[in-house]
Amino acid sequence: MINGIFKFRLVRGDGYILSIKIAENDPQYVDMLNLLCGRKPHKWIGNGSQHKIIRFDKDFKAKLADLVNKCENNDKANAFIGEIAEGDYVAFLREGTFNKIDDKLFGEAINHIKICNAEDVYDVYVYGDTQQKQFTGPSDLRQCICRFCHLSYPETKFKKKNAHAIPNALGNELVFCNDECVTCNGKLNVVENNLINYLNYRRAESKIPGKK
Question: Is residue 31 very low, low, confident or very high in pLDDT (cuts 50, 70, 90)?
Fold first, then answer.
C-alpha cells in the first residue's frame, strides 16, 4: 500500500507483466484488495507474506475480470487476463513502502511459476531415507501406458522391477517404472550405458559400485 493506493503487479509465466494501481477512493478498491490479498497462495515468494504464486480457476478469473471491467483503462488488463488459462499460475507482487519490486523479484517470480508448472507435469519421488521400494505408474501392469512409446497392454509388455527410474549403476535400487515397457527399456540401454560411461569418473570418486 502506498499513500492510500493499492499497487500491485501480476506476472505470467511467459514474462508479461500487468501493473495496476487503485486509489482508496475507487469503488473497486476494497473488493480488489480482498480478492487478491485474500487469495490462497500456492507458494510464497521471498521471506515475507506479500508476494505469492496464485493459481487461476474459472471463478477467480471471472471475479478479477469483472472488477477490472469496472476500472478505467482496462483494455490491457482484459487482454492480459484473457490469455490466462484455467489452472495457470500467476505471480502476485504487492508493492508497498518497504516492498520494492525490482528485476530480481520478477526473475524469482517467473522461476517459481516454472517450478509450479513442472510439478504439474512430473511426479516427484524422494528416496534414500528408507528402503521402501516405489513404483511409477499403475500397480496393475495391464493398465500401464508406456511413458515413452505410449503403447499399452497387450500391444506391448511390462514387467515388475524391470525398469529403474534412475539407472541401477548410479545406485538406485528403490525406484522403478511400471510404465516403461520392456521394448523401450531395452532400447534405452544404449542411452543409459553412454550416461554411465560419461559418469565413470564421478561414480568412482563418489564410491558408487557398479552392478558387478
Answer: very high
Q: Which residues contact 78 (CB under 8 A, 6 or more apart)?
A: 65, 68, 69
Pair type for strands 5-11 and 17-23: antiparallel
DSSP 142: G
Q: What is the pLDDT of residues 162-198, one digit of tens each?
A: 888 888 877 788 889 999 999 999 998 888 889 888 9
CA distance 178 to 36: 42
Residue whose C-alpha cell reads 534412475 in the numeric block: 166
Q: What is the pLDDT of residue 98?
A: 65
* Helical spans, DSSP H, in 6-135: 29-37, 58-69, 75-82, 103-121
Burial profile 78-88: b = 16 or more Cβ within 10 angstroms, e = fewer = eebbeebeeeb
CB 99 within 8 A of CB 106: no
Percent of the chain with pLDDT over 90: 38
SS (H, E, C) 148-168: CCCCECCCCCCCCCCCECCCH
Q: What percent of the chain has pLDDT over 70?
A: 92
Helix ranges restricted to H, 70-207: 75-82, 103-121, 182-187, 189-198, 200-205
Three cell numbers at 161? 522391477
Residue 3 DSSP label: T
Helix/strand/coil for 147: coil
Best CA proximity match to 174, nearest among 125, 121, 210: 125
